[in-house]
Amino acid sequence: GDPGRRASNAPESAASVARRATARRDFTGRDPREVLHEVYGYDRFRADQADIVAQVIGGGDAVVLMPTGGGKSVTYQVPALVRPGTGLVVSPLIALMHDQVEALIANGVRAAFLNSTQGADERRATEQAYLAGELDLLYVAPERLNTASALSLLQRGKLSVIAIDEAHCVSQWGHDFRPDYLALGDLAERFPGVPRMALTATATPATAREIVERLQLPDARRFVASFDRPNIQYRIEPKVDQRRQLVSFIRSVQQTEGADASSAPAGIVYALSRKSVEQTADYLRGQGIDALPYHAGLPTDVRATNQSRFLRDDGVVMVATIAFGMGIDKPDVRFVAHIDLPKSVEGYYQETGRAGRDGEPSVVWMAYGLGDVVQQRRMIDQSPGDRTYKMRLGQHLDAMLALCETVACRRQNLLDYFGEASEPCGNCDTCLQPPETWDGLVAAQKLLSTIVRLQRERGQAFGAGHLIDILRGAKTERITQQGHDKLATYGIGADLSDQDWRSVVRQLLARQILVAQGDYGTLALSEASGGVLRGEAPVPLRRDVLGRSGASGGSRVRKSSSADAVAAGDRDLFEALRAWRAEQAREQGVPAYIVFGDA
Ligand code: ADP
Ligand code: MG
Ligand code: ZN
Q: Above 0.90 for ipTM, yes or no?
């Protein structure tokens, strides 16, 4: 009996629900495969799951790097059921925690959670259940776990396994850092003999190393699943008219999904701001698309209603900030669209990973504009944190830009980022329609030579605008005053438009063939410049599809005065990159000018 509970008239707690749900089956010591079948109804373990489960049941630690939807949950839940004691699950997402516990209880597992949304009664009931050995799984938010009372509670009971989910949150440089994760390394000493697991879907080799180190898992066996999601098609296109592009993308998915339209495809559209979420949802509804908004600023009941419509009904398009999606287990999301540039490749990968969990063909699409870069750069500048921290954010942005600007396979670029070698996929936009490229070697050499000549002959350095004027043979006041029309490279780049040159500069900066330095963002050579000047390798540049003219224009000198939106965007992009490079240069010391033969 439980007189304490009966005396209380508080709403029924998770713990009491757990107890009630138990026509108690005891899984201790049972065959993991039987447990998998009896509890979840699955026939067999997927890929590495069986090995992970065996490792942990045997008392060993494990680091599990598996993409979203790969099936990480059962790898800690099954050991928690098979080993005596309660499995402790550290999870940062309270909403997700709640859903997981509900699902477990529905499967007859005695599960409960401890987090800040609970009342005192409910918390006490959960604590008692734990101490009485009546819980198979206990979910705890990291901030609660890091309290003396929670730790002493846990030490008074018996843990079977400690699973740290979303373990990449321990990475200070990651996109999802949570300070409370840093203290989780102490669990090793507090609970010796309890096997520990770190699980994440976000795993660059550097993040994995950081997880092992900070969570004190030096002897853990590492399980690395492939991060490839072969059923996902990647597409990235330049932003021209974002809303129209989005609608035509959604329509194209609707068409491929079949005209029978009995079930319109469900999708998620990610935007950066709440305002943009609401405006985009309105716009899509105006276009006859069943779109709903979701962001943290909406009332709880609206969020809940929209989320359940998305999960339950066919063909709902959720327009959301990144607050939406973590832990949303909807298998048949047919597309994910990004109308703003994500902050990192990790984030992009996680968000796009919500498409096609059922393994069916799915499309992810992003519209990438130059203004995005400016906005992101501004956000980095304004973010709290020291210079090193901002530098890391800048590196995340750089990797994202490299993915956007690649002329090679998108999937290969992504997998390479996660440390996985692969062949071109044949299914992404760049594989299906290789972008038009041109060999920018000579253009790059002209630009780099101008930079070096100015530096050597005059001890001067300039930003992109003036350098382009020199190359194009413009007759500006500054050129005359400085006598730059006497330079050997004056006018040698008149074959390219101002806009083409800006595209060259942008791409060379993105590939770090150039760096921008100092407060004025003057252009300078990088370590990679030498090879280009010596002509050691071609410099394939993507032809800017945004531009009006190609790189092949005649020799007429067209001054940049046209307040062309694209060129303005280019300038903005350049400014953004410049600021970032300047910071990087300050941080690393000014790179030495290389010595090369006369161009
Ligand atoms: P992750 O945490 O890695 O993103 P989940 O643990 O949420 O993934 O699992 C993703 C989906 O795969 C869930 O719908 C889950 O029920 C399903 N799943 C996991 N393992 C198996 C399995 N062995 N057989 C069938 N389905 C599985
Ligand atoms: Mg998970
Ligand atoms: Zn490809």
A: yes
